[in-house]
């Protein structure tokens, strides 16, 4: 098939590359000339394990191309994916200006009789497919066109986890497609057939249900994480161990093992935005979604859960203290720093008069763009420890899990570790003589 993907952000680039991998001809469109030039020259613009190999292979085979021209991108496309930003507005609702802006352009560019399937791949509020359909028709009418029966708008939400997005796309648990058009169903069934050969379901439903499915899925996962963080707080007060509780409840198949690890809150581009947007959508129909309001409140507090413990250790005086931060990305195996808990911690430490030296395996460039010279960026996890009064762990990168503790001890001024991701064994920390604070477990030292 011939496919256009509008937007070359995280979702767009993964979507375009993976569709090209199954033999489709894909053109990705973006208004950012510098980004398109980089991509066209073979420079991938995001870090995602396994993506670069597919990207370069399909570009070499001329199945994956890039342009700044929307007209050229969609000219021969049978299916057009909208993978555009939907940032939260001031009131928490998803901003659809980019999606609807492109919809208007499509109304101007699509020709009568040249049937195309327009696919909302972006995470969008319930009712967006109707708005996109209306925007295309209004624009077409304004340009003297009748596009009746020339297109269908489909909702096809993505369920990609950063860090494993290629596997998620190539071997999806399920594919959700919202459309009531038999013609569009045929196109989408054929497109996804190579990805579900093992029998994982392609679930067809109406557009509104598909749109809500995405928000409901992410909101449930955010709730699961937040519940475990609440349990962790209770464990600290009662003297229980959250790791034991996690194992105890995770073995129940009704609950499952995933998304039960406590920490310093969720971040990223999806969970914060999607929970907020679903709450806003609920408010618009006069429904008070109490659970999700609580989830947002708890998560905000959780990001700074370690700060009172840091303050207590240093006698409530952080002025002049230096902290090493391991991890800046919101999760491992990505360079995404959006809503990363590390940045909330850094901000508070700086306000208290402390200085920070930070390291992350992949997110340093993005972090420098946001923080500038407010902190010191170093070349390795151990470089961050030089002259530091304590170590704070904010992201659970694998290379942080089994460090050289003798080296850590020799570089830190104090043998103090504040671990927001529960990387280390309590007995080991006790044997090594550390002051060790984690989440939902007893404090060592």
Strands in their spatial order, largest beta sheet: 3-2-1-4-5-6
Q: Could you tell me the strand content as a percent range?
A: 5-15%
Distance between the termini: 62 Å
Q: Overall 3D geometry?
A: elongated
Give the overall pLDDT as a whole number.
96
- Structural class designation: alpha/beta
Largest sheet: 6 strands, parallel
Q: Radius of gyration, rounded?
A: 24 Å
Number of strands: 14
What is the count of DSSP helices, taking H or I runs of 4+ residues? 17
User: Helix coverage percent of residues?
Assistant: 40-55%
Oligomerization state: single chain
Low-pLDDT ranges: none
Tell me briefly what this model is.
The model has no long low-confidence stretch (mean pLDDT about 95). Strands 3-2-1-4-5-6 form a six-stranded parallel beta sheet, sandwiched between helices. It has 17 helices and 14 strands.
Q: How would you describe this structure to a colleague?
A:
By secondary structure, the chain is of the alpha/beta class. Helices cover 42% and strands 13% of the residues. It is elongated, with a radius of gyration of 24 Å. The chain contains 17 helices and 14 strands.
